[in-house]
Amino acid sequence: MGNSATTDVVSNNREWWKEAVFYQIYPRSFNDSDGDGVGDIPGIIEKVAYLDELGVDAVWLNPVYKSPQADNGYDISDYRAVNPEYGSMEDWSRLLEELHDRDIRLIMDLVVNHSSDQHVWFRESRASTDEYADYYYWRSGDSGYPNNWESYFDTPAWSYDEKREEYYLHLFTAEQPDLNWRNPDVRAEVFDIVDWWLDHGIDGFRLDVINVISKAVGLPDGDPDAEHVGTEHFINGPDLHDYLNELSGEGFGEYRDEVVSIGECSNIDPETALDVTGRESDGIDMTIFFEHVELDREEGWQHREWDLTELKSVMADWQAAVEEGAWVSLYHSNHDQPRGLSRFGDPDQFRYESATMLATWLHGHKGSPFVYQGEEIGMSNVTFESPSDLDDIWAQNHWENEREAGKSFEEVRGEFERFGRDNSRTPVQWSDEEYAGFSTSEPWLGVGDDYEEVNVEADRASDRSVFEFYSELIELRSGNGLLSYGGFEMVRPEDSSVYAYRRRHDSVDHEYLFVCNFTGDTESFELPDTVEYETAEPVLANLNKLAADPAAVELRPYEAIVYELS
Ligand code: GLC
Description:
This protein is of the alpha/beta class. It folds into three domains: 19-114 and 182-470, Alpha-Beta Barrel (TIM Barrel), CATH 3.20.20; 115-178, Oligo-1,6-glucosidase, domain 2 (Alpha-Beta Complex); 487-565, Immunoglobulin-like, CATH 2.60.40.1180. Helix content is 30%, strand content 16%. Bound molecules: alpha-D-glucopyranose (GLC). Residues 71, 74, 111, 172, 208-209, 264, 335-336 line the site of alpha-D-glucopyranose (GLC). Residues 71, 74, 111, 172, 208-209, 264, 335-336 line the site of alpha-D-glucopyranose.
């Protein structure tokens, strides 16, 4: 189906980012070109051809700005400079050029809920310099913490500053003080930064934790039962919509219609997403939501059993919001989550099958698919032998809390292996060479144990290549109006083994049917007879079977088939 059909399906709101597949690069772990054990921008440039072969349309680059790396770049000390470990501004410009030469767009990360404590603003603010005194949230500490809020990283949300003799707010690490968005000067600084990067030719931003930028007036106490105490006073806060509208007008300005803004929104539901992607504010085009990656998690780090019908219900609600005018990023992995393959699939027994089934399942929904580095070769979670294997500050804080509660590492190790962010941050496994071909010296974070079998070279040489399957899937979506804009309808929502759905539109004479077996067993699936068709042609399948009629089909473990029904 070419472009004319796309025009049929969507009459007026066609956008490049609704038709694009994004690839997320975590620069520290992607590819190291200078052998210091840390990934870098020239290392990314070496792999642009690889991204092109995969067929992606855009790259989301996690922060590469100057940063002391307390939270791996999410603590920025200079928003207009590249971290020297990663290269130079010239390298960055070259990357942009190389990507654009291949029609791949570049999205940068905008981290402006907080800065680094090493940023000149914070240094001046600590010194109470007039201009900057009010750039952050300062409160007197005469009677201890100003309120009971907790950070997202399992610590109090306030730290005392000896110099200013006051507490400052940080919803993440103490090295990430929260910027005071109520100060118009702060907002003007942010909009300048946005403008500066847009002038450099980028194609949009992923807005880090953007729905916590507005804190309730007076910073009151929070509900002690909340997972992170205080969230009701800063998630989707009172001025969020105004701030986003300003960001759109003064920040994105003349670029607004060409670029994309992708908002990471914690604790957001579909109804609120509709507000932030259009109804009440114009600052966000697309929401990164979390409900589907939280199904297996109780509060904190505890595992919870879940059922496929719950996943269906979460996804169906989000698909309904998309139908109403919201837009979402479709992902099962990123740098903050354990590997989706370990969470939803079975990398031990069915690596190829479950990696490709999950890809099919995800990409068929309505929204913009995101591939997280390494996902396209089936990388999975890793093991942590001792606390010294934990790099992530959140994991380190959690371990500290567990240790203080009297736990041994052995007792809680499983929590890190299941949920730890380090799982997805290990170096990309390029080959079976030492350090997985990522670097010539010991990487900053250990390489996965399985790198000799699971690596790009081996995968691409195999006749069951996950990479090859991803590229076919991306190709199927490319220019396909029905998949980008057609409606979504779940089939047999009560089935707890097979996840099936239709994608269709009144103006198109065929439809797609996705059928995905989420189990390691053979499952039978029967299409309800309300689904009418004359011919069923499988257009993509992860296992070698291209004939079965979906009216009644036996699906092998993790089998996925996409049918075109006419
Ligand atoms: C976002 C980032 C995460 C970071 C946090 C604080 O959730 O994705 O990596 O730790 O914000 O900036």
